[in-house]
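Is this the right way to post structure tokens for a design question? Let me know if I should format differently. Anyway, here goes:
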């Protein structure tokens, strides 16, 4: 039993490799991205037993890091008894094949590792569909690197029985067609998920309930914030990518404002584009949001870079036109005086609850559509108006006396219709009228 535990432990030991080169731009490796890669390995259930960061003018087209460095990595793998090498950069299919042969252990890149984590974490049907789609899209161009030769069936090898020679169908083409069929089927299923979501969204819009989406770098504290303000009970762990499925809750911000609030998957640098595509069904919630809460972990020394990555991904998802509040989280662990004061921002601690009231006030202010709580005195011949108040507003109390006295929360359109019966009503003046 003890031997089995040791074997399992050994299987997850990895040497981490990164290449720093001026030609790689966004895919460049550095100390920070390597530290993040180590955290990703931890999240995946493994551990890093060595790290090599190579600098060179440009990647080697054959082995990516060059033959000398490959030998250095191979020696480290043997010394540390590692069974895996994980690159911080994206590798081509042929590079993965060459490196696997040269090092004698499994070689994967950052995208492959992230996909593996997503596969472990996804729980709902939608999350599993999205991960499966991303995995197949990642796998398709890499098939050629998986076979040591292209034709595994007898048709063209010349070694089959008489009558079997001919064009045949390679295993590669067969697998490609199978994967393309799977991708098409998964896309159809995700379209159905989107259709259901769209129906739910239309219902929310009909009810005029604003939508607030929580976004941020992975592990910034988004789930903890949602738990704190809604009591949602979502697991909030100190792990990257802990939330993979959008969690949606109804939140009462103030006595005149209810919102639908959604937690989204965490963003990360060098996010595989297959994942951005596959997770559109989750992230498209951003496009229909009325307000974004960008949660930033200010206790992280790299919070500025992380915030920039999130903002660039928001632009990529065409959601940069949506009003946004910067929520500086974990202020109990960081000194907020180092930051300049800025509009539409608030410092909080989702864990202790500090600053949550200020956040609620800011959300209320940003989403103030003119909804007001009013007292109405309706003559008995106008009681037919009650139906409209129940339908489009929120009735809190009705009392019958000399008039029908109604306390209700009404949106602007309703206020305009009922202004003659509102107690103490005065028309709000425009700035130029004052």
């Amino acid at each position: 039993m003890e031997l089995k535990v040791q074997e399992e432990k050994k299987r997850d030991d990895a040497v981490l490799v990164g290449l720093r080169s001026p030609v790689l731009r966004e895919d460049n490796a550095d100390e920070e991205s390597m530290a993040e890669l180590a955290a990703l390995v931890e999240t995946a259930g493994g551990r890093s037993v060595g790290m090599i960061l190579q600098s060179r003018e440009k990647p080697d087209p054959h082995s990516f890091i060059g033959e000398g460095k490959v030998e250095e990595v191979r020696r480290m793998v043997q010394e540390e008894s590692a069974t895996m090498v994980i690159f911080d950069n994206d590798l081509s299919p042929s590079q993965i094949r060459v490196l696997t042969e040269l090092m004698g252990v499994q070689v994967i890149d950052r995208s492959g590792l992230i996909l593996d984590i997503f596969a472990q974490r996804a729980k709902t049907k939608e999350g599993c569909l999205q991960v499966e789609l991303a995995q197949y899209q990642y796998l398709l161009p890499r098939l050629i690197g998986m076979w040591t030769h292209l034709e595994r069936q007898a048709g063209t090898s010349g070694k089959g029985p008489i009558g079997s020679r001919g064009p045949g169908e390679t295993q590669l083409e067969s697998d490609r067609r199978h994967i393309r069929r799977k991708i098409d089927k998964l896309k159809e299923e995700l379209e159905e998920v989107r259709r259901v979501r769209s129906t739910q969204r239309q219902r929310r819009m009909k009810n005029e309930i604003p939508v607030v989406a929580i976004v941020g770098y992975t592990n910034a504290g988004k789930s903890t914030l949602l738990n704190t303000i809604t009591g949602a009970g979502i697991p909030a762990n100190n792990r990257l990518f802990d939330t993979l499925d959008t969690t949606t809750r109804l939140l009462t911000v103030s006595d005149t404002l209810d919102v639908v609030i959604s937690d989204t998957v965490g963003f990360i640098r060098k996010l595989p584009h297959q994942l951005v595509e596959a997770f559109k069904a989750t992230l498209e919630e951003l496009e229909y949001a009325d307000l974004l809460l960008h949660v930033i972990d200010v206790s992280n020394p790299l919070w500025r870079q992380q915030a920039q990555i999130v903002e660039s991904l928001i632009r990529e998802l065409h959601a940069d036109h949506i009003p946004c509040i910067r929520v500086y989280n974990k202020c109990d662990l960081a000194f907020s005086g180092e930051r300049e004061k800025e509009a539409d921002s608030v410092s909080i601690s989702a864990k202790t609850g500090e600053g949550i009231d200020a956040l609620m006030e800011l959300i209320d202010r940003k989403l103030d559509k003119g909804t007001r709580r009013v007292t109405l005195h309706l003559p008995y011949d106008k009681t037919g108006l009650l139906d409209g108040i129940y339908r489009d507003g929120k009735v809190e109390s009705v009392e019958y006396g000399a008039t029908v006295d109604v306390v209700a929360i009404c949106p602007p359109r309703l206020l305009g219709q009922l202004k003659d019966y509102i107690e103490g009503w005065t028309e709000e003046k425009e700035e130029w009228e004052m």
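Format looks fine. Someone answered above. Worth noting: DSSP finds 15 helices and 13 strands in the chain. Residues 1-11, 145-168, 430-434 have pLDDT under 50 and may be disordered.
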